[in-house]
Amino acid sequence: MNNVSVITMFFLSGFNETISHRFVLFFLSLLCYCIICLLNVFLIVIIILDTNLHEPMYILLCVFCMNALYGTAGFFPRFLWDLLSDVHLISYYGCLIQNQVIYSFACGELSILALMAYDRYVAICQPLKYHSIMSKRRVIRFACFSWFTTFCILAVNVFLTSRLKLCSPYISRLFCGNWSIVQLACFPAQTTINAIFANSVIIIYFLHGVFIVWSYMYIIQTCVKSIENRAKFMQTCVPHLVSLFTFLVAILTDVINMRLGSKELPRTLQNFAAIEFLVIPPIMNPLIYGFKLTKIRKRIYSLVIFKRTNFCFIRSDNSFTHS
Q1: Which of 175, 188, 294, 320 is deepest in the core (most CB within 10 A)?
Q2: What pTM does this model have?
Q3: What residue stretches are annotated with the G-protein coupled receptors family 1 profile domain (predicted)?
Q4: Largest alpha-carbon pair distance within the chain?
């Protein structure tokens, strides 16, 4: 037991099944990460530059996209590096940092979705009070507070994990997860506090989900009575519900696989279940909001038409000059 506290590196054994296809996986992962960055940055830039989009709903959407960039930055660069490496090592502190970034992203995603649900609840159920309740400054404060609180809660979780004495450096995943590290503890009795705190975190963010469901129950009840509210619901609430459903399916798949997953499942399937929440929502969300929200869709169309007009003008100008 003298060596239990000297683990400085972890081996990510989840990569063992990727060796034969690592170059194909590297290309697909790089393409996926580029698409995530392009879509989310594009939406952020549109919202920041267009003053017509400086409204609570779009500010929250901007924060949503920033959170996606933050979370995927904690996974993809390291993942791409490991796909090209023969030895899949990560430092002890690097593992804790990756754990902090990825899971604060996941919990932050749910917090932002809860804020979005509250924004839609006020907009549809209390429209006369909307601008006083959901002012720009207050929305920014709400978003910063929810994200900072999430970051601190997960930081406490990581701190509790860092106290554990570990007996093995092998993590059977593609990235560092809190539960994967806790399972390596030499003394199960030491993990009691970790389990209590982790379950408390699950309850806190489960209540976020309950709040979202409660908000939409009132929204739907209000929309049934008004054709105008039904149109508003289809235009602004449906993207939120699709995002919520996509995220919950992805994150629950990872949680179930991590806590209850069977070792008899193929490693490839386990790997996909583990990274699903880091791939599908960051790609789907910008597409859903970009095509469904009218103001953003019109802004994108105007940019495309403007560029096409300029391109045609330049071509005609060049042809005139040559003639």
Answers
A1: 175
A2: 0.85
A3: 39-289
A4: 86
